[in-house]
Amino acid sequence: MPLMRHSNEVREMAGELGKYKLCVSARSADKAILKKAQDGGIVTQLFKFALEEGIIDGAIVAGPGDEPWRPRPFIATTVEELMTSSGTKYNISPQVSWIKEATRSFGLDKIGIVGTPCQMQAVRKGQLYPVGLRDVPDKIKLAIGIFCMENFSYQSVKQLVEDHAAMKMEAVKKMEIGKGKFWVYGQRGQVVQLPLKVTHKYEQPGCHVCLDYVANLADVSTGSVGSPDGWSTVFVRTRNGDDIWSKAIAAGCFETKPIEQVKPGLELVTKLATEKITKNQKTVEERAKFGVNKGLRNPYLGPK
Amino acid sequence: MADKITVGHVHMSGCTGCLVSLADNYGGLLTILDKYADLVYGLTLADVRHIPKMDVALVEGSVCIQDKLSVQEIKETREKAAVVVAVGGCACYGNITRFGRGGQPNQPQHESYLPIGDLIKVDVYIPGCAPTPQLIRNVCVMAYLLLKGNKDQQELAKKYLTPLMQLADRGTEACGCDLMYDVVNQGLCMGCGSCAAACPVRAITHEYGKPNVNREMCIKCGACYAQCPRSFFNFDVIPEFEGIMDAIDAALK
Fold this sequence. Notes:
The complex is a heterodimer of chains A (about 300) and B (about 250).
Chain A: H1 2-12, E1 22-28, H2 31-36, H3 42-53, E2 58-64, E3 71-76, H4 79-83, E4 111-115, H5 117-128, E5 140-146, H6 154-164, E6 172-178, E7 181-186, E8 191-195, H7 196-199, E9 220-223, E10 232-236, H8 239-250, E11 254-258, H9 265-287
Parallel strand pairs in A: 2-4, 4-5, 5-9
Antiparallel strand pairs in A: 1-10, 1-11, 2-3, 6-7, 7-8, 9-10
Chain B: E1 5-11, H1 17-23, H2 27-36, E2 37-42, E3 54-60, E4 63-64, H3 68-80, E5 81-87, H4 88-93, E6 113-114, E7 124-126, H5 133-148, H6 151-170, H7 177-184, H8 194-198, E8 204-207, E9 210-213, H9 223-227, H10 241-251
Parallel strand pairs in B: 1-2, 1-3, 3-5, 5-7
Antiparallel strand pairs in B: 4-6, 8-9
Helix pairs in contact in B: 1-5, 2-5, 5-6
């Protein structure tokens, strides 16, 4: 079985895809979730299941904010609230800002949180080195990570949509980065695609030192790359993630296919992960010699 | 119990909140005292009057340099302790005592307060106002493994404690401004929100994904920068979170 062997080799490779127990292509079995989902509705479905089963009693998600397509992190404690957060918003949502408050005025004991790879890193750092996060370490029960190549500021997205794609923000139905393009779908059916080249200068600078593509530190991580439209690639990583995922599968929450049987599959995920990490590793190294006999900070070497 | 380490709590110009945080480990603290550490000094809890020799000194509070006894005690702590840990924002960074400027009865001349690192060499920082019970616990367990563990455990403890030692090397000044100087200005902020969650006085909000510090509210505790995943992020420890949390849990069973 050459395909199987390939998958094991990938698993053993350096850190590109992180540690994981299981990788599948999946989508929610719930039509209502799929209708609003960015891809396979994995995040919404898994949180819905975890809320209903009492595995978590609330989840920090990215809901609608004050302006169109501007996310606002908030704590969803009901399925109705959760459902308002579907879909990718390509700009910054400071998810972790609510993580302590969730255990305070919200009174949560079992927290769910969804976020990008850097936000999963923040959660794990907060669990191992809690400086201002009393009581948070033991209350993280389901951390779902989403694949992330880079992010944008709100003003950047606005620039891309309004200037480059010539659409109004409030007239946009969906945005997507895939197949080498930035796609903007209008409410009335129009589609504009921008080459990624025009988006590069708008990227959040702090993303250029990021060495994680597929949310290596999440319990479960998911993203569109590797799976067909309407499906998601899912990595089940921790013991805790494995436990919850197995229960959700047993409850019939998801349709799954072995990742080896879908196109483009893990090969593309690995390729993009390697590209991101190689490029950003180079940026990190160049920072050391950014000035004349002086450099910029490297957080991976310490706080100085 | 010869294999226990000896630990002391040294109270400088602090509020005892750091000691309360240690105590807020509840059963965990009792387990630590049963299995891993003897509390050989701590005026709040025990009747030992003078600073004895100890493996680890947990020092809270800053030092009033116009108070001779305080200056003498912090120097003595350094002489008597193998490892000096600055526990909490005051010992690490001065914290609220940075705002002290004298003029109050009945010692109006008590006006200058310094973090302990300005007077002695400090080995490990545990920032935060208050520091979290969980971080104090982790440092105690790791200090035990470092001094009494097998080779693997010593290796783990060393890796774990390294960034907290690096924070001690970095300096004795802290402020919400650190987020500007050393994260945003350095091109490292990615808008995760950790700083806002860590701030004990809610001085930090996020405007369009970037931290906005209300410096009139900031009490200079250093929590935001230490908690920021772009201050330090040690890839040899944090990705092993599952195993390390299991190990700490097992140690406290």
